[in-house]
Amino acid sequence: GGGSDSGGGFVPAPEPEGATIDVALTDASGSSITEITPLNTGLFQVAVTTPDGEPLAQEVVSGDVTLGRLLPESGTALTNDDGVATFFVQPDGISGAGTMTATVTYNGVDTSQSLNYSVSTQLPFTLNAEFADESGDLITRAVTGNRITLLVSLTDDRSGTSIKNQIVAAEIGDLGRISPASGTTVTDQSGEARFTIDVGNTPGVYSITVSVSVPGGKLTQSADIVIDQAVHQLGHFDVEGNFIEGVIGIVPDGRLSPGGTAILSFAVVDEDLNPVSTGDTLSVSSPCLFNNQALLAPTSPISIAAEVSVDYTLQGCTGEDLIT
Known about the structure:
mainly beta
């Protein structure tokens, strides 16, 4: 006799299914973006659902990025009641392309999803620094003792408009003395900040640095200027306005009576015979002055800016007195 096999086979349980993940990148207003900038923090919205499409609330989502700064710094976030976890990514000093990967464990199954993005560290502002002479003409060279102006402009590249009321800082090193002395000033209505610099006495190439804080970070710009040795000539201007080099102007031009006073006039000009107004120091001497038989007012050394007059009064000196 024959028989038949009527036993039932074993049916294994279905494999557990993990969650479904969707990653989107938006700005703060919820608009979709692809690039993260200093002014536009990226919000990675990670939506987590069950295999049947139901939102999963209070699930721990792990996030990882290859470029930029991830917040929360723990790299984890909880989904809200709608099953969405949010991560923030900000530029961290390097531009380029990166990938955000979100991972969640559900039913013992790890599920990951990734999204590519780009990061730009460029701020949409332009900071520019230039030098000008006392006539307002732009320059790249000056001479020792000159007074020059440092012009700093700030522009919003998105609109092309100038930015006013921003604090600008300037570092000029050994170039000279800056005004305002704090090294800071504010951009005016035209977006320009002005510094006055009295150049020092040492020739060379000098680099200055200007900086300003703007939305999203800080801008820094450098500019170089060449300082040549100034050629100054000492003398005086006569009554017709002519410069007489190497000669002191004396009024009255003749013999002084005891106790009498003469006015000594001095002038300093550059190689083009233009008055030098940035200030030099003048030393006046003579045998009578050395022996306290004559007095100067003001006393030597004397600060001279273009021209100066000095009273010379006899105090017992006789004969000729050679003034240098």
